[in-house]
Amino acid sequence: MTAVDLEWVPELPLWEAELLDEGQRLLRNITECVRGSVDIQSEIEPNPLCVYIKSSEGQMLYTNSAYERVFGGKMMSAGRLSMAYLNGALQKVAHDSDMLILRGSNYAFADHVGENASGRSMHLQTIKHSLLGVGHPKLAILGITQVLKFFDEQPHSSVRNLEEYWTAFRLLPERDQQCAVMISLGMKSKAIAEKLNVSDKTVDNRRDAILRSLGLSNPMEMACLLCRFQDNGFGQFGL
């Protein structure tokens, strides 16, 4: 593989549900590759999306040509730590979503921004799946990223910074903050309802209201955000 065409972008981005389905398909096929001792690279290489497989330490074990075109730059990514070459906002998203997988989540989804190898800002969607149970000692995380579009402006001009998110979070009612933390810890609505002495439906309604207030799309993004709060010293949530 060679790193070429840094402005490459798929012509027809997948809908979110289709991206999730593609992640499940690749997960099944890679599991079969491991169990059948089939070459994993041959499975991920033809995919038009940016596909990569990482170890639990963050080392890139496999990447396809699409990934290298967007993120690799002049050096191949395989064999390197992702944090050594990812730009700006991508480092934080990569770290937070990796931590969710390594702490036991089966998958993580993020709608986010980042920069390609030439520093151009992009709107991205990423799905990650856990490979910890496939029977290979090194494989930990399967990642699939699609480029939705390029921006001319820098990422921070189109995305709220962490301080703004923290202010919005602190403006939530105390019980909503508690609810957000419990959701991010992976607790089910029934368990949260019992803890707060409310109905399951109330928890679901409050969850949707919290996501709207914070400008987030799903509970996984909220968990990533709270991890960022914690990692940057805004608060401790036990994540």
From TrEMBL:
Q: Where is the HTH luxR-type domain?
A: 169-226
Q: Which InterPro entries match?
A: Sig_transdc_resp-reg_C-effctor, Tscrpt_reg_LuxR_C, WH-like_DNA-bd_sf
Record SUPFAM superfamilies: C-terminal effector domain of the bipartite response regulators
Q: Where are the transmembrane segments?
A: none
User: What GO molecular functions are on record for this protein?
Assistant: DNA binding
Q: Which domain of life is it from?
A: Bacteria
Any Pfam family the entry gives: GerE
Per the UniProt entry, what is one GO biological process? regulation of DNA-templated transcription
**This protein's name:** Response regulator
Organism from which the protein derives: Aureliella helgolandensis
